[in-house]
Amino acid sequence: MELKEKTVEKVRAYYLRGLNGKEIGKLLDISPRTVQRYISESGCREISEPKTIQQKAFELSANGFSYAEVAKKLRISKTTVYLWHKKRKQQPTE
After folding, report:
1. Burial of 74 (0-12, 13-18, 19+ CB in 10 A)
2. I need a labelling partner for 5 at 20 to 30 A (CA). Which of 50, 63, 68, 81 fits?
3. 63 SS3 class
4. Residues ≥6 apart with Cβ < 8 Å to 88
5. The pLDDT value given to residue 93
6. What is the arithmetic mean of pLDDT over 67-76?
7. Tens digit of pLDDT for each residue in 37-64?
8. Other residues' Cβ atoms within 10 Å of the Cβ of residue 35
């Protein structure tokens, strides 16, 4: 299998798992624009819309992960996770 084909398959797999172009680019060491191109070529954009890092953080917390574990999994700081949750709790529910 050609290198580009392997990369496109990896991009597709990460995208379907919910990562966005910037996150995939960092993991595969390619530009976010290249990731966008590969996503369009593979036709998986219609299949899944990626979740934001903040949405992933809330999901992981809801599944019982601590702020430190969430931060480590998403490669962000514990403070960021804490502040997102604090802000979410302060918002009035509709």
Report:
1. middle
2. 50
3. coil
4. 58
5. 65
6. 90
7. 988 887 776 665 667 888 888 988 998 9
8. 25
Give the number of C-alpha atoms closer than 13 A to the C-alpha of residue 23, restricted to the C-beta side.
19
3 state DSSP class of 3? helix
Q: Where do we find the tokens 């379907």?
A: 16
Q: Where are the domains of the chain?
A: 3-42, 53-90
**Rounded mean pLDDT of 21-46?**
86
- Provide the Cα torsion 35, 18, 51, 57; round to 10°: -120
How large is the average pLDDT for residues 3-26? 86
Angle, helices 78-90 vs 67-74, to 10°: value is 120
